[in-house]
Amino acid sequence: MVRKQFTITDPVERAFVLKDLALVGPTKAIGYLPMRTVTRILQADLGELIATAEAKGVSAIAFHAKDCCIRGGALYLYHRPTLTALLNASTHVLSPSNIPSEPDAFVRHIAAHWLEPGHPVRPIIDAAFADEVTAEIPAPS
After folding, report:
1. Which residues are 74's β-sheet partners?
2. Are strands 74-78 and 59-63 parallel, antiparallel or unpaired?
3. Would you say 126 and 133 are in contact if contact means Cβ atoms under 8 Å apart?
4. Could you say which DSSP state residue 114 is in?
């Protein structure tokens, strides 16, 4: 069986797919796209995406499949100042779960480990991604 290669070439459709990455900044700490979406569907140059992000003050980590819970790997972009503020305000939840509060280590951790809904750290992850399903982060006791 031969699989047909699906690609997106329309600029409006490409912008829609890239929106999760494009919004990363002061109001959205983290965004990601599966590597297959980046390289196969968008046929985007990974180096160019990373360079564009870094030019906007956004950090990037490209994860290979073996280092990521997303099948095939993923490209994560994150706004270090926004993520740092969120993590600093959330150490009371992160520490008991042994999840790092340093931005680079946090991104590596969530890329490697899928946390199910209901996990105490999920509201922090949802807030970092600025997901609409964000639950309230518990206050320190």
Report:
1. 34, 63
2. antiparallel
3. yes
4. -
Element (H, E) at 48: helix 46-55
Q: 30-60: per-residue pLDDT in tens?
A: 999 999 999 989 989 999 999 999 999 999 9
Asked if the model's pLDDT at residue 135 lies above 50, the reply is: no
Packing angle, helices 80-88 and 103-112, rounded to 10:
90
Tokens of 84: 């740092």
- Residue 136: closest CA among 96, 69, 122: 122
The answer to whether the CB of 63 falls within 8 A of the CB of 70 is: yes
32's enclosing H/E stretch is strand 30-34
- DSSP state letter for 24: -
Residue owning tokens 């990373």: 50
Residue 41 tokens, joined = 């569907």
Q: Hey, what are 113's tokens?
A: 């480990």
Helix, strand, coil abundance in the chain, percent, nearest 5: 45, 10, 40
